Amino acid sequence: MLTQDQMKLAAATKALEFIPDDAVIGVGTGSTVNLFIEQLATIKHRVQGAVSSSEATTARLKALGIPVLDLAVVDDLPVYVDGADEVNHYLHMIKGGGGALTREKIVAAVAKEFICIADETKYVTVLGEFPLPVEVVPMARSYVARQMERLSKPGIRVHPELRMASGDKVFQTDNGNYILDVHGLNIAEPVSLETYINQIAGVVTNGLFAQRRADVLILGTQHGVEVKR
Ligand SMILES: O=C[C@H](O)[C@H](O)[C@H](O)COP(=O)(O)O
């Protein structure tokens, strides 16, 4: 029986086959991506560098000698590799468990191909068991929380929770914002919910990646690596 980390590593290693020569690569954030970064370091001589989606990823890339470029000076990003907290059969995702959703969404928007690397525990029929991260401007946190609660239905309570770092310290994103983790959503229509939440004043973005879904899912399973499109 493989561990979750072994399945993540298998998916991260397979992703190397999707990396074109001499390209700048978009790199996401999280434990699965950290394994990918270690693999990417083994072929760093054949890439120009990486665009990073978080301060944590930037530090790891630099530590392994992979040049980090500013997205603003990169015109062509053929591939973006990132993990997910949940991914459904249409390759819509929930992301942002590590709080990097906004920069991830920006880099993903620029990239031609989004390659999601995940282990089989992330593969779901309906998104929403994982609480949906919503990045908010700090002063809007209570207003946005109230708007999210209005998504409750009879028998289903939608419950936003302000993400804490430790003790009574509020978690802050790389952009200086807060995260509401929204529990109780059963997401039957990810594209319309993504749009709806993003229109609430004070929301920077939410962790649904449905309008810009993954193009390829590399899934580490107990029976080997599966590639889905
Ligand atoms: O903000 C974090 C990212 O969206 C990650 O891609 C996501 O949380 C998955 O992370 P992990 O690979 O650690 O499960």
TrEMBL record:
Catalytic residue list: 104
CDD domains given in the database record: RPI_A
Top EC class, one word: isomerase
Top-rank lineage group of the source organism: Bacteria
Recorded metabolic or biological pathway in which this protein acts: Carbohydrate degradation; pentose phosphate pathway; D-ribose 5-phosphate from D-ribulose 5-phosphate (non-oxidative stage): step 1/1
Name of one Pfam family that matches: Rib_5-P_isom_A
HAMAP family associated with the record: Rib_5P_isom_A
Family of this protein: Belongs to the ribose 5-phosphate isomerase family.
Subunit structure: Homodimer.
Record's protein name: Ribose-5-phosphate isomerase A
